[in-house]
Amino acid sequence: MSETIYPRSPREVMNGWLYLPRFIDKIRLFNAGRLHEDYQPNFALRGFDAQWLKAAGLEADAFIAVVVNSLTDGQVSDWIGRHVDRPVEQGAFNQWLIQHGREDDADLLARFETRKAQAGLSHRNDITIFVDFIDADEKRL
To answer: N or C: which end of the chain has fewer CB within 10 A?
Structure first.
């Protein structure tokens, strides 16, 4: 059995975008057949992946092709620099990402607490947003 390879933290930044380096890792892992099964249901079409694509104004298949056909993060970064100029959406996405889990939404908060409990992290009061949860679940926090 192979060891789980985690994508980078959602806090990592590329071209001013939070989450972008993580999404690139997820695409590369998926393409290599190594994306952990827990990440596959949301891959590219739901969750943070879909929210990033929407904010960047990109279609999933098109962006996946960019990453798959690039050898380095630098090439992806250069492509983003040439094709994605959405500063308002970028700022809104970054702000949303670092606040997600604090919204006044009972269903979202219940899902957040359930995810913490399922991961054995209910005792962690320092985990207050989904980004914290991801980093703790992947042993970075």
So the answer is: N
Cα(88)–Cα(96) distance, rounded to whole angstroms?
A: 12
Q: How far apart are alpha carbons 108 and 92 in whole angstroms? A: 19
Angle between helices 73-83 and 20-31 (to 10 degrees): 120
Q: What is the pLDDT of residues 74-101, one digit of tens each?
A: 999 999 999 999 999 999 999 999 999 8
Verify that 79 and 104 share a domain, yes or no.
no
Enter the pTM of the model. Answer: 0.93
Taking the CA atoms of 22, 28, 31 and 32 in sequence, report the sign of the dihedral they define.
negative
Number of domains in the chain: 2
Give residue 134's domain range: 100-141
From residue 55, alpha-carbon distances to 21, 96, 115, 119, 126 in Å are 15, 11, 25, 29, 28
Tell whether 105 is covered by a domain: yes
What pLDDT, in 10s, does the model give residues 50-79?
999 999 999 999 999 999 999 999 999 999
CB 33 within 8 A of CB 50: no
- What pLDDT, on the 0 to 100 scale, is given for residue 1? 45
